[in-house]
Amino acid sequence: MRDSPDRFRIADKLLFMPDLLNYFLTGVMKTEYTIASTGAILDASTRNYAWDMLDKFGIPKSIFTPLAQPATEVGPLSKQVLGDVGDIKAKVVHAAAHDTASAVIAVPAKGDSFVYISSGTWSLMGTELKQPIISADSFKYDFTNEGGINGTIRFLKNIMGMWLKEESKRQWAREGREFTHDELSDAALASKPLQSIINPDDGIFSPPGDMPGRIREYCKKTGQHVPETEGEIVRCIFDSLALRYRWTVNCIDELMGHKAPFINIVGGGTKETYLCQFCADACDRPVYAGPTEATAIGNLVSQLIAAGELKDIPEARHMIRNSFEIIEYHPKDTSIWDEGYARFLKLL
Known about the structure:
348 residues, alpha/beta, Nucleotidyltransferase, domain 5, two-stranded parallel sheet
């Protein structure tokens, strides 16, 4: 806006991508709450637009459309769309448009006190709250208050995830060495634990490229054993992510004032069974892993609630627990993780 002020003079409405697709289908302009909450335009406490802040930036109110909650109806298909697809009685529904918001809907937790990890390229780790936590400590620990279904708050932190392993695998392929994910995970399990640790969120690991080389250089600079084999590299990644999860869940416990009894992991990262076990070991609490396709399932749940087929989120989560395999991991060998965590803290 600072560099191109004329854009607001020609703009009529602002729509996030999911809302734009809904508009194309129905002709209705609304802004879904969960996706809007990630755009730095809402007040987390009121769940409405932060008008005072937007005014200070000179952003006109006229470009914003009414907010809509997930699991509510957008409208019927427009006449133009019906002309293309035929006279079908479909209605368009607001899903939780942010992918993590849909994934959190599908967390098969029992009760309200739980910590989740939406595990994929990134690890989104947090808890579900009725009210936001806005404090000096939440700012210091870099947590965000994003929108969830039924006006809940996804209080979470973005953490590095399977990107580290995926980019390492790509680098080895570029060097002519092809491995399956299972082969790399098995090699990691066969490697000595906790001999090399990185801070996964260090900016050096964000860009694509030679991830194994960067991990070796990081370990060399911090005076640690330099991992050489593929198994040692992946073991370093798994151990470091598990320790980062421990740091994050400790922050959540502190900010909430009580210890979360367990951790639910959903998403593609649940396929990394060794990492799930390391998470349980490092965090010293049970881990429940599954379902894998949590975002798609959460999207379906929003539609089922809107259609009256499901009563509410507790009923939906009960259904998910009984419909998908949920693997339990219980902590063991926790003492070695205490020593590793002490070394990890020195890297932050």
